[in-house]
Design a protein that fits this description.
heterodimer, A: alpha+beta, Flavocytochrome C3, Chain A, domain 1, Methane Monooxygenase Hydroxylase, Chain G, domain 1, five-stranded antiparallel sheet, 19 strands, B: alpha+beta, Ubiquitin-like (UB roll), Fumarate Reductase Iron-sulfur Protein, Chain B, domain 2, 2 domains, five-stranded mixed sheet, two-stranded antiparallel ribbon, 8 helices, 7 strands
Chain lengths: 638, 247
């Protein structure tokens, strides 16, 4: 068993971070340039941390699989980024943002970490603004905000429906400044294949150069994973199609515990699948729920065009079930409610797997111009993809796999259980509990990268100043490279009949059906068997053409799907273990009489940190969650 | 719309050292709801299942924002529909029986890597040369201490939405990167935050652009017409102005 020491600083909630920063160990400027740091990923957390660590004078090496760091998937976040600025004078504060996140996460996140991210949120907005990120503004020249799903204040900063792109390009520009300054070296088109552990510490990585197929070794004093989430495990997801879990999974197999893997957010408003070759489901930002009203026909199987259905025959089910929050309930609640209506036979469209998101009333009240100003690019995107005009008829939407709250377990310093290995952004489990609120992912990724990790990593690195530059010639590097090469050879040698995409689609279906929006014991047990069978098939019937020593996109995919097959089992195991419903984890056996999630705080108020145990069952380690500053409550949006 | 049959003529090239050529493929059962890349996925599935190498192409987000994808489709970068990236181009814009020619970007500064994949790292090198505002994490002032007119800020946003796909270079007879460079220069020229380093920035980025082997701008406007984000030609005028001011 590993020991989970969260290293939460003593003292009142609002003083913990200040105290930590004032007392943590620092590294002398002259020593910083002798210390190497490897970062995997160039999204908001990866690019941000690379820039900030470079600015501090560390020697940073950054890796991404894309051809340019500017393409990391943070680029696709639409709606916005939260901060507790209280610019709208509507009663917001750091504590309220913290409380909303704790409550939104259904009391399954660590208080101290959540409070800290709320605290640094304001610095993030200051920094991005200074970097030239063109956030939306009021006519007087100040920054504008809007309200976003699941909260009652207006704290979301935005740049039309492209907030993620603008923040990422801001982070990319600060990364470029450090590349220019020589503190950061960029390695694009690399897949991380393994972490190299020497004497119990993370000391390097093995990567595959995706252009040449060459296997490379890189060493460092510390390794930072900023590799994103694993939502693409569902095959149908809102993520970039190459997003993957492999870096985090390799870290798990080298000793980093994986926390709450079953906590996955299914986003309520994506465009439904249109053809069988489609895996990418395009998200329609949840900001649309500020003005759009969600409904299905009151009569089962009503196939009339939406506009022909009179008002009294429409069921605005979110407004009916949740009068206080209405269409703005948190994502998990909105997704389950859509599934419930569709499963009961009220869904719309050819497949019956869609609900209406209607702007008729908003257009009537505010005028087409105002709606176009707010959502023009999203409406246009919808029309291009579906061929339907959302100004004239309701959008059709359905839930899709989106964000993973689970991830590598980290302590207050964002270090995993493998010393020297850190995890930031979506790749860690830290701040969103069992459900993430809208516009909190950009906030967390940027906060981790720019303002938290640079302060915490020095505590570890201060103990490394006497460690000389790590050579890449040792036995541990030999071994890791050998294993990576053997796996590539194995994938190439199967020469079966099916593509890795075919296997991915099958795996996604199992996970969606049995470990998706709702789960039950019988289904989860069945899924374990199905995944085992599929995995056997994969390793005997996979077809990867071409060679390893070449650009080979099928080989890249195959490696990622192979890791998803293993991660799937851990997700199911975690979902089986958690005999309660909380946030996005909805076990059908545990619900209130009117169908809401039923937590069991006595038995499950803990983080489940799974430890790799070779071919045996993984070991469950529990980090008890103590709520000293908020009262545990039933999460109600009624 | 019923499914379509297509004749595809695709550029296949093993690597930078080998000569490439067009290869023809017949593809049936193309749904009009597919995106252009999903149509290529369908072709690739057939190729892989037969043990053949699939057509290599860059792609990632598939929602028109990461800038990974891009290819000439019947001679047009990102295809015949304005304002769309290849991943967003739906097959319903084509007809049953169409022949479609697909090629990688052609530009000296974008050498072909394999099939439809080109090396666009020259774009990154231009950004590294000066596409930033020098502010260190922790040094920023309170955000509302910088007031920016909404009009200017919105204009800066319209320049800032460049996705770095390279269609501007691909569409230009001179393979010029002026639209790409001007988008970043404009974003910062329009904002007070960008003023301090304006001169050094435009000099550095133009110097690097020339070094990377991009051609000159002769104002034909093909870049604006083909840009999937519809970045305006006026950005180039602003770039020129900024450049004159810098010397």
């Amino acid at each position: 068993m590993i020991t989970l020491n969260a290293k939460i600083p003593e003292g009142p909630l609002e003083e913990k971070w200040t105290r930590y920063k004032s007392t943590t160990k620092l590294v002398n400027p002259a020593n910083k340039k002798k210390l190497d740091i490897i970062i995997i990923g160039t999204g908001l957390s990866g690019a941000g941390s690379a820039a900030a660590l470079g600015e501090l004078g560390y020697n940073v090496k950054v890796f991404c699989y894309q051809d340019s760091p500017r393409r990391a998937h943070s680029v696709a976040a639409q709606g916005g980024i939260n901060a507790a600025k209280n610019y709208k004078h509507d009663g917001d504060s750091v504590f309220r943002l913290f409380y909303d996140m704790i409550k939104g996460g259904d009391f399954r996140a660590r208080e101290a970490n959540v409070y800290r991210i709320a605290e640094v949120s304001n610095q993030v907005i200051d920094h991005y603004t200074a970097l030239g990120v063109p956030f939306a503004r009021e006519y007087g020249g100040t920054l504008d905000t809007r309200s976003f799903g699941g909260v009652q204040v207006s704290r979301t900063f935005y740049a039309k429906g492209q907030t993620g792109q603008q923040c990422l390009l801001g982070a990319y520009s600060s990364l470029n400044r450090q590349i220019n300054a020589g503190t950061v070296t960029m390695f694009p088109r690399r897949d991380m294949l393994d972490i190299v552990v020497i004497d119990g510490r993370a000391r390097g990585i093995i990567v595959r150069n995706l252009l040449t197929g060459e296997i490379e070794r890189h060493s460092a004093h510390a390794v930072v994973l900023a590799s994103g989430g694993y939502g693409t495990i569902y095959y149908l997801s809102t993520l970039a199609v190459n997003s993957n879990a492999s870096a985090a999974w390799k870290a798990y197999k080298k000793g980093a515990a994986f926390a709450n893997p079953s906590f996955v957010q299914i986003h309520p408003t994506s465009i439904p699948q249109l053809n069988e070759f489609q895996s990418k489901l395009t998200l329609m930002s949840e900001s649309l729920r500020n003005d759009g009203r969600i409904w299905v026909p009151k009569n089962k199987g009503d196939k009339r065009p939406a506009n022909d259905i009179p008002e009294e025959e429409r069921d605005y089910y979110l407004e009916r079930r949740y009068p206080t929050f209405g269409n703005l309930v948190p994502r998990d609640v909105a997704s389950r409610a859509a599934k419930e209506r569709c499963d009961a036979g009220y869904g719309v469209g050819d497949t019956g797997l869609a609900v209406n998101l209607d702007f008729r009333d908003a257009i009537k009240k505010q005028g087409k111009k105002v709606i176009e100003n707010k959502y023009g690019n999203l409406f246009e995107m919808y029309q291009h993809i579906t061929g339907l005009d959302p100004y004239e008829e309701p959008m059709r939407i359905y839930p899709a796999g989106h964000y993973t709250m689970g991830g590598l377990w980290v302590d207050y310093e964002l270090m995993t259980t493998l010393p020297g290995l850190f995890s930031i952004g979506e790749s860690n489990f830290s701040d969103h509990g069992a459900n993430r609120l809208g516009a909190s992912s950009l906030m967390q990724a940027a906060g981790d990268g720019y303002f938290i990790l640079p302060n915490t990593i020095s505590n570890y690195l201060s103990g490394e100043i006497r460690t000389p530059r790590v050579p890449t010639t040792g036995a541990e590097f030999d071994e890791a490279e050998k294993n990576a090469k053997e796996r590539i050879d194995k994938l190439l040698s199967i020469k079966g009949k099916n593509t890795s995409t075919t296997f991915h689609r099958r795996l996604g279906k199992i996970m969606w059906d049995y470990c998706g929006m709702t789960r039950n014991e019988e289904g989860l047990k069945k899924a374990l068997k199905l995944v085992d069978e599929l995995r056997k098939d994969f390793w005997s019937d996979l077809m990867v053409p071409g060679e390893g020593a070449d650009l080979n996109q099928e080989l890249e995919k195959a490696g990622r799907v192979a890791d998803f097959m293993e991660l799937a089992k851990l997700m199911i195991t975690d979902a089986l273990n958690r005999k309660e419903s909380c946030g996005a984890h909805f076990r059908e056996e545990y619900q209130t009489p009117d169908g809401e999630a039923l937590r069991n705080d006595n038995e499950y108020s803990y983080v489940a940190a799974w430890e790799y145990n070779g071919d045996n069952e993984p070991i469950l380690n529990k980090e008890p969650l103590k709520f000293e500053f908020v009262e545990l409550k039933e999460r109600s949006y009624k | 719309m019923p499914d379509m049959k297509l004749k595809l003529k695709i550029w296949r090239q093993k690597n930078a050292k080998t000569k490439g050529s067009f290869v023809s493929y017949d593809l049936d059962n193309v749904s009009p709801d597919m995106s252009f890349l999903e149509m290529l996925d369908a072709l690739n599935k057939r190729l892989v299942e037969a043990g053949k190498e699939p057509v290599a192409f860059d792609h990632d987000c598939r929602e028109g924002i990461c800038g990974s994808c891009g290819m000439y489709i019947n001679g047009y970068p990102h295809g015949p529909v304005p304002g769309l990236t290849t991943c967003h181009l739906a097959m319903r814009y084509f007809n049953d029986g169409d022949s479609i020619t697909i090629e990688p970007w052609r530009a000296k500064a974008f050498p072909v890597i394999k099939d439809l994949i080109v090396d666009r790292s020259a774009f990154d090198r231009i950004q590294v040369a000066g596409g930033f505002i020098s502010v260190t994490a922790g040094a920023a002032a309170e955000a509302n201490a910088i007031l920016v007119s909404k009009v200017k800020s919105d204009e800066a946003f319209d320049s800032a939405i460049c996705i770095g796909c390279g269609a501007c270079v691909a569409s230009c007879k001179n393979a010029s990167a002026m639209l790409f460079v001007s988008a970043k220069i404009s974003q910062f020229a329009l904002l007070p935050q960008g003023k301090v380093e304006a001169k050094a920035r435009v000099r550095a980025m133009i110097r690097e652009m020339d070094k990377q082997g991009f051609g000159n701008c002769s104002n034909t406007g093909a870049c604006e017409a083909q840009c999937p984000k519809q970045i305006k030609l006026t950005n180039i005028a602003r770039l020129n102005r900024e450049y004159y001011k810098a010397y």
